[in-house]
Amino acid sequence: MPKIQTKTEKEADWEEKKSIVDYISSKLKKADYYEIRLVESKGDSILMNNGNIEAVGFGDGSGIGVRYILNGCVGFFSTNFFSKEKVDETIERSLKINSKIGELGKKTKFSKEKIEKADYTVKEKKRIDGIDIKEKIEYIKGIDSSLLESQTKLISRMIYYSDEKTKKMYLNSEGSRIESEIPRIDIYYRFAVSENGSTLQRYWQNAVSGGFEKIEEKHIDEKIKKEAIALKRNIIEGVQSPKGMLEVIVSPEITGIMAHESVGHPYEADRILGRESAQAGESFVEPTMLGSRIGNTIVNVVDDPTVEFSYGFYLYDDEGVKARRKYLIKNGIINEFLHNRETAYELNTHSNGSARAVSSHVEPIIRMSNTFVLPMDYKEEELIQETKFGIYIKNFTEWNIDDKRLNQKYKGNEAYLIENGEITKPIRQPSIEITTPALWSSVIEIADNLELHAATCGKGEPMQGIPVTMGGPSMKLKIRIN
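The structure corresponding to this sequence follows.
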C-alpha cells in the first residue's frame, strides 16, 4: 500500500519540485523568453451506471511544462522527472530540435505584459481531499435515488463524479512568479425516459471550483428529479411545435450555449488568424470587424475568469497575465477578441489573459473561461406575461454549428407553448436555425435571472478539455421556428 504523505511531507515535496523550476530557469538564460509551469493534480472519480458503482478512480500526478523562444523560434518540452540529470537531458534534446526548426519558419514574438507576483487559493469549507471516497459515493447514490423517485420509466441512467485539486507554480524570464491552488468538482449525468414507445434523453453537467459545499449548493438531486418528470410529461402530453416567425423565450441554459458557440469560439484570436483551421475550424469574424455591429444594442456578451467559485475560475492565465472581464460584444458591437501573447502581438494589442493549458504536458492555447450574456432589468415572468403567443425553451437536446461559427441549429428538449401570457402545453423539440448576426439582432428583451452552467470545452491538437461555464439570463427573441 502506498505511503500517505503528511502535510509537512507534502509541503517539502512541493518545495523540492519548485527548486527544479528554478534550476530549469538557470539553464535557459540564453533564451529570448521562457516560461515554466509546475503543475500538480490529485483527485477522485466515480462512475455509476443504472445504480451500480462500476468504477472508482484515484489520480495523482505532477509535471513541468516549459516554453521558450530562442532566435525567434518557439520550443516546448515537458517532463514528469524531477532530477537535474533528467532535466538536463530534456533541455539539451529540445534545444537541438529547436535549432533545426528555427531555420525554417517565421520568427515568433509575444506581446509585452506586466510583471506579476501572486499567490492565491480558492477557499474550501469542506475540503475535497478531506472527504472519504465512501461519502462521495453516498452523495451520488442520493442523486440516483432522487431520480428514481420521479416515478418515470427510466431505461438508462448514468452519473459520473470527479474532483481534482490543481496546484500550480508559474515563472517566466520577465520576472513573473505566480502560485495557485484551485479545487474543482464535476458531476455529469445522463438518463433516458420512455413512455408509450417514445424516448427522450437528458444530459447535463454541474461543476464548480471550491469545496464540496459548493456542489451541494447546486441541489442536483432536486433538479434531476424535476427534469425526469418534465420529460415524461413531454412524451405523454407534448404537442407539435408551432412553426414560423414567433416570439421565443430561451432560458439561461439556451442563452449560454448560444453565447459559447456563436460568440466565444469565433472570437478566439487564434481561430480568427486561421490557427485552428485544420482542427476545430475557422471564424466568420475578421480582425477588421472590431467596432462592427453584430446584434441589438441591449446585447452584451462577456468572458470573465474572475467569477468566484465558477468552474472556469482563475486569476492569472498560463502565460502569467492577470485575468479580467472581456467585453466580446458591447452594446451590440464587436468589441474585443480572446487573446494570448502571440495573437496580441500580431494584432498590435495586449493579451487579456485567455491562455490556458489542461496540463503541464501541453502548451497554453486561447480558451474561454466563463462566457455569458449580461442581465438586464426584466423578470423572466414579465417576458412570458407580455407574450401573446410564443414558445419557451428551457433546455436543449442537441445543437450544431458550422466550422466558421456562422450557421447554427438548436433543438429544444423541455419546451412549452405560451398562450396569452401563460405557459400551457409542452411541445416537442422546437428547432431554431439561424446565423450568428441574425441571432443576436433578434434579441428584443433580456431578463435579470443570470445563471452559469458548467461545461468541458474541447479544443486543440492534442485535444484539451478545459473547465468553462456558459450562461446568461433568459432572453426573448423574434425568430423563425422550423
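The two ends are 60 Å apart (CA to CA).
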